[in-house]
Specification:
α1 crosses α7 (about 225-235), α3 (about 70-80) packs parallel to α4 (about 105-135) and α4 runs parallel beside α5. The protein has a single domain (about 10-250), classed as Rossmann fold, CATH 3.40.50. The protein starts with 10 loop residues before the first strand and ends in a 9-residue tail after the last strand. By secondary structure, it is an alpha/beta fold. The longest helix is centred in the middle third of the chain and has 28 residues, at about 105-135. The protein is built from 7 helices and 7 strands. It has helices at about 20-30, 45-55, 70-80, 105-135, 155-175, 205-210, 225-235; strands spanning about 10-15, 35-40, 60-65, 90, 135-140, 180-190, 245-250. Strands 3-2-1-4-5-6-7 form a 7-stranded parallel beta sheet, with helices on both faces.
């Protein structure tokens, strides 16, 4: 069996594919011969990502604010009308804003749940399109190490609750969609250098702040988007045809233990 990934003739939809891990995942699929649909909150972000990724293959950039149910519904319609041929889906969008449990507001809580709601119904649409066409497929959800374990330095109860729910959804969908030849898996990253940290750390300070987490990982460094993308691409591919319902840790050894 060849160990080189080949996505020729396949299209991936990456929800949250305009930056960070989602962007890197789209690039990996493109470089292996596939095409990609990347979504972002604003059309300007989608256009910018589409232009940059186009150097690697055919890309479509779509905009939708996942916190707005009407925008999610419009995106669902577009995915059915224009991209029903997609056989791969990655749910990669996210926000991360650590805050003590006693300080969480309803808006904080709802923000995380809105993303899961969007993932739920976007996945429903993409899976239904695959089933309608009789196509086999693969779905990967970007979960989190925080769903497995609480970290005192980053109190994130609502975020972790939402990610734990996404891990659970992964297993339920794996069971329900297996008869249709659709695999569903998730990955659980630890600290990865992406723009998500700019939510609560000034952009100019992000690198130095994340350097402080290097030793938190037994391997001795924080992750990169490509660290995650390589494994997600593997899970999307036919190389993992007998893997479904799994939640793979990609965390530099954090779940194995601490230094």
């Amino acid at each position: 069996m060849s160990t080189t990934l080949d996505f020729t003739g396949q299209k991936v939809i990456v929800i949250g594919g305009t930056s960070g891990m989602g962007y890197a995942i789209a690039r990996h699929v493109l470089e292996a011969g596939g095409s990609a649909v990347v979504t972002g909150r604003a059309q300007a972000n989608a256009d910018e990502a589409q232009a940059a990724l186009s150097a690697h293959g055919k890309v479509y950039g779509l905009a939708a604010d996942l916190a707005e149910p009407a925008a999610v519904d419009a995106l669902r319609t577009t995915l059915t009308e224009e991209h029903a041929d997609a056989t791969l889906l990655v749910n990669a969008a996210g926000v991360f804003a650590p805050k003590p449990f006693l300080e969480h507001t309803g808006d904080d809580y709802d923000r995380y749940q809105a993303i899961n709601r969007a993932f739920f119904f976007l996945t429903q649409t993409v899976a239904a399109n695959m089933i309608e066409r009789g196509a086999r497929g693969s779905i990967v959800n970007i979960g989190s190490m925080w769903a497995h374990q609480a970290i005192a330095a980053t109190p994130s109860s609502a975020y972790s609750m939402a990610k734990a729910a996404l891990h659970s959804l992964t297993q339920h969908l794996a069971m329900e969609l297996a008869p249709h030849g659709i695999r569903v898996n998730a990955v659980a990253p630890a600290v990865v250098r992406t723009p998500i940290y700019e939510e609560f750390i000034p952009k100019s300070d992000v690198d130095s702040a994340l350097d402080g987490f290097n030793d938190f990982h037994p391997i001795g460094r924080t992750g990169t988007p490509d660290d995650i993308a390589a494994t997600v691409a593997f899970l999307l591919s036919g190389q993992t045809d007998w893997v479904t319902g799994a939640v793979w840790d990609i965390d530099g050894g954090v779940m194995a233990g601490r230094n």
